[in-house]
Amino acid sequence: MKHFALATLTFLYSLTSMPLGAQSLVGEPEFIRVQREAIEQDRQVVMSTYEQAAKGCWQKFAVNNCLSDARKARRAALEPLRQKDLVLNTQERLWRTEQRDLRLEGKQPENRSQP
Fold it and tell me: pLDDT digit string (tens) for 46-66?
């Protein structure tokens, strides 16, 4: 069971280590949406793996210890996803601020030097 958890964590880490800065031709909001969907899919994989591990724990003698290990593995797998979520939140906040500034620039009068 530990080998399965370790292999799963390694696989999930490789999924979550994709760079967030590669936007190619996709616009900023679309890029953020796509990344959020990918993170949510990874999160669903982690949760289903945890649920399977927790179900398997009930077949063992040391149920609580097994459940504790499963929770630790889940937390370890979810942490990189949480970090990516925070990075996306920051990117989205910066993009929204930039868009707001552009809208406000358009509303400013052309003669800024006059009082």
Answer: 999 999 999 999 998 889 999
Who contacts 88 (Cβ-Cβ below 8 Å, separation ≥6)?
A: 20, 32, 35, 36, 39
Phi-psi sector, 24: left (phi>0), alpha (psi -120 to 50), beta:
left
**Predicted structure pTM score:** 0.65
Are the C-beta atoms of residues 53 and 73 closer than 8 Å to each other? yes
Please write the tens of the pLDDT for every residue from 21-35. Answer: 444 344 688 999 999
Which string of DSSP letters, residue by residue, matches 18-53?
Answer: S-S---TTS-HHHHHHHHHHHHHHHHHHHHHHHHHH
Ramachandran bin of 84, using left for φ above 0, alpha for ψ from -120 to 50, beta for the remaining angles = alpha
Cα four-point dihedral sign 15, 50, 70, 62: negative
Exposed / middle / buried, residue 88 (Cβ in 10 Å: 0-12, 13-18, 19+)? middle
